[in-house]
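Morning F.,

Quick status update on the modeling queue. The single chain you submitted on Monday has been processed. Sequence for confirmation:
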Amino acid sequence: MSKQFDVVVIGGGPGGYIAAIRAAQLGFSVACIDEWKNEKGGPAPGGTCTNVGCIPSKALLQSSEHYEHAGHAFAEHGIQVSGLKLDLAQMKKRKDTIVKQNNDGILYLFKKNKVTFFHGRGAFVSAKDGVYEISVTDADNVTAKHVVIATGSNARALPGTPFDEELILSNTGALDINAVPKKLGVIGAGVIGLEMGSVWRRLGSEVTVLEALPTFLGAVDEQIAKEAHKLMSKQGLAINLGVKIGKITTAKKGVTVEYADAAGAEHKAEFDKLIISIGRTPNTIGLNTEAVGLQLDERGFVAVDGDCKTNLPNVWAVGDVVRGPMLAHKAEEEGVAVAERIAGQHGHVNFNTIPWVIYTSPEIAWVGRTEQQLKADGVAYKAGTFPFLANGRARALGDTNGMVKFLADAVTDEILGVHIIGPVASELIAEAVVAMEFKASAEDIARICHAHPSLSEATKEAALAVDKRALNF
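C-alpha cells below.
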C-alpha cells in the first residue's frame, strides 16, 4: 500500500529540504526522499552542498587560513609561534564534525516541521489521474499530486579520465586527501578549483592551475578578476590560461598531464594528485523520467519554465538540475517559491540579484552586472571604486588587499552591480543585494551612516566614488 502525501520532494539538498519545509509550513503533508549516506550508512541530508561542497570546503578553507596565519602573519601582531605542526587528521575530523552537525540539523528540521523523511533513492513509477507514484529504495512506494525534483548535480569528468578519488579527484576526493600533496594539479580555474587549490596551497602544496579559457574568471568583473589573478599568483598559485589538455596518465604514485600552453608549446607536468574542476552535470540518473514522460533539455537538465514548472502538471524542479546558476542559495529560493506556488501564492526569485561568492583569500563576491556586460549592452553607467588599503578596519585586521566597486546607471544612479574582492566579501555583498532589490541608487548607500571602523565603510566610500566624492581616498 503506497503512502499518500500532498507533496513529495526528491532530493534533500538545499533546494529540496527547504522546499519540503516550506511546503509543510504551508499546511501540506510532505515527504522528502534523499539517498546520501554518512560513513556509517545512515542518512546524511543536505546534498552536495552539505556533504562534499559548500560546508566542508569552507571548514577546510577556514582551518587552512588559520594555519597560514600562524606560520606567516602572527609575528607581525607580536605573536611568536614555534614548532608549528599540521595535524591534517584533526583538521579533517573537524570538517567531518561540522558536516554531521548540518546533516543532523536538517533531520531535526524535518521532525520539527512534520516532514516525513525517506532514506533512499526516489524514482518515478507511473502517473495516473493526476497522481504520481514514486518508488523509494528499501521502502514502500509513495504517491503525491505534486512532485518537486531537487536531485542536484554531479562533477563533470574529462572524457577518458574518470574520477577514482585517489589520484584523479572531483570535489569529493579533493576534500578528503589524507596527506598534503607535494605537487597538486588543478584542471579548471573555476570556483571549486580555486577554492580547493587555495586550501592545499596554504597547507604546503605546490599548486598548478590549468585553465582552458584565455581569460581568468571570465564571469567576474574584469577589473576584479585582474586583481584576483595578481593576488593569487603572488600567493603562489601557478595559474596557466589558454591551455589545451592532452594525455593524462596515472601511475602508482602520481599523475602525468600533457598539455599545450597558450603559445602552443608542449609541456608535461607530474603531480601527486590531480583535481578536475571543469563544471557539473545535472543529476537525473535513476529518476526514470521515461515512465512519466518528463522532458529533459538538450544538456540533460530538467526542462522548466520561469516558475520551475516542468512539462508535466504539478511536477516541479529546482536547483542544480535546472537552468540557471548552480548555487545553493539559488536552489533554496526556488524551493521556497515552488512551495508557495503550489499553495496558490506568488513565489518569486529575482535572478538579477542572486549574489555570487568565491571563498578564496581574498574572497570575491558580486551581484548584478559586470562592467563588460554593461558595455556590451550599451548601458551608460558610472563606476566608483574604493580600496581596502584606505580602510581603517582592514588595516587593523592586516588584510588590505582588494576593493569595492559600484556600477550605477549614468542617468538614474540606480545600482546596476556591486563587485568586491577583499576580506569577508561574502558578508559585505548582502548590503548590495538588499539595495538592488529595493532599486536603490548609489547615492542612497552613500548617504547611509556606516559604523566606524568597519569594512562596510569601503562599501559607502565606493558608492561615494560613483559621484567622484570619496572622503578617505
